[in-house]
Design goal:
The structure is a homodimer of 267-residue chains. Chain A has ten helices and four strands, in the order H-H-H-E-E-H-H-H-H-H-E-H-H-E. The first copy, chain A, is mainly α and 267 residues long. Chain B binds a DNA duplex (21 and 21 nucleotides) through helix 3.
Chain lengths: 267, 267
DNA sequence: AGATATTTGTTCGTATGTATT
DNA sequence: TAATACATACGAACAAATATC
């Protein structure tokens, strides 16, 4: 008698046959759909691995690849232990910004490109934020200016100043009510902070840059306090143009590899 | 005498000890670094799974989760068969756009948000593309206009028209020399094509919308042929403002779920 | 604070599908 | 067609982390 065929089979079930995709990718999509039709939202939990393998009829390894896919996309976080498992997450800015940097890594991109984009986005973001700043925001903005006082005491200090300068803009971006604008504004500023390097030889005069920035930041705070849209627009435009000029003067250039997390202290 | 510790151990090697990250994530990063320091570029192949497990001292399951991570980020593609394995890829627009949609899924975003962004980006993109269109581009632009001739013959036709109208803009975006602008322009147009739905009850007059679009597209082609920056700027500004007006008039609204690939024919 | 139970993280062995030759 | 080389998928076991008692 011929031996029976093993019950265990790698044959792909009929209902997911048509496109010759990887099973793990199919499962990842099915989990996404399941979450949506089930009405689950960020903070809700997914069933545990064992239950999911039973639900989607696949092995644990395949399921884990599907979960890894969702995790990389920032859609879930996974924890161990009792009551552990996957939790649905709101996709973070950081996760999406990383992916956009991955994309730009394979494009050729110059300081001028970044500053053209910055001029466009940042001015509009700044204007849109008028009337959306609370007192805590103002204190933080003023704190960022205070960080930049005095002349540079070395490279570590120089990097801290730059961090504070760009943090000023991130505060404004967070208060922009248009999520598309806000994302782009944060992204551009992060790009400036982490992926521009200056020629060490011409490292002479950063103080002029810093002084100009502080002056413009002060003008901006006054404009926000007065809720003067036109003045915010004008000040920010001049500010970005000034920053572009200083950056070019100091031989700033884009770093080559955007794939790797920034050193953050490259100055 | 105490028994010797088993050779096989899940203990994480010292060189990757500090942050308590998952091994698969660490391996994914190490592969990224390896690619960079080795000077590999898009199109080059990674070693096979077996070689990679030997190089990074982990099991196939763990390595496959790491590769899955890189695959989801669009950094590699994987194929089976002889000479199969992972190939380094330039991160695609589609992959990064998907991630940005994932992000926006958890934000509240309105037609006005999209059109404010579109006005900002598209005008500048259009101006930047002046002088970068070849004859093939012009033929394609004129083809897109031709697609929109005649009145609507039903919903399928309506969707095809909309597809062609937005394809016009994608052609321009692809010719914009600033990758940051170009990405954003394509993204906004894809968003408009795939994630705006119109109220079926007021489905009456799309023809006016279509006619206006065609008229503006023709004006734009003339402006591009004349390489007239100012005219391109003016025409595109009016075009977007007109499109915004029509969209609001027809009760357009953002679809709720950006997580799922578009039906593309929702109109 | 410590023991325990639960759940994910990792490994290994094996079998199957698929593309190249 | 057959052989080969590779990714894909399954299953069982053990290790590590963590919440609860």
């Amino acid at each position: 008698m011929t031996p029976v065929k093993p019950v265990k089979s790698n044959a792909i079930p009929a209902f997911r046959s048509l496109p010759r995709r990887k099973l793990s990718d199919v499962i990842a999509d099915e989990i996404k759909r399941w979450v949506l039709v089930e009405g689950r939202v960020a903070g809700d939990r997914l069933p545990q691995e064992q239950a999911l393998t039973a639900q989607f009829l696949c092995s644990r390894g395949t399921l884990r690849e599907a979960l890894k896919s969702l995790e990389v996309q920032g859609l879930i976080t996974v924890s161990t232990g009792p009551n552990g498992g996957a939790t649905i997450a709101a996709v973070s800015y950081e996760c999406s910004a990383r992916q956009l940097r991955n994309y730009l890594h394979f494009q050729t991109i110059s300081i001028e490109h970044v500053y053209d984009m910055r001029m466009l986005i940042e001015v509009e973001t700044a204007v849109a934020a008028v009337g959306h700043l609370d007192s805590a925001d103002f204190t933080r903005l003023e704190g960022d200016i205070a960080c930049c006082h005095g002349s540079a005491w070395g490279h570590g200090r120089q990097a801290a100043v730059r961090q504070a300068e760009l943090d000023f803009h991130v505060v404004l971006a967070r208060r922009c009510p248009n999520p598309l604008l806000a994302f782009q504004a944060r992204f551009i500023n992060d790009l400036l902070r982490d992926y521009i390097e200056f020629d060490v030889h011409t490292c002479a005069d950063f103080d002029g840059f810093t002084a100009d920035n502080s002056a413009y930041h002060k003008k901006l705070i006054d404009a926000y306090r007065a809720a003067d849209h036109a003045l915010v627009r004008r000040s920010m435009t001049e500010h970005i143009e000034s920053a572009r000029w200083h950056t070019l003067r100091l031989n700033g250039s884009m770093v080559e590899a955007l794939l790797i997390p920034p050193d953050r202290m490259t100055i």
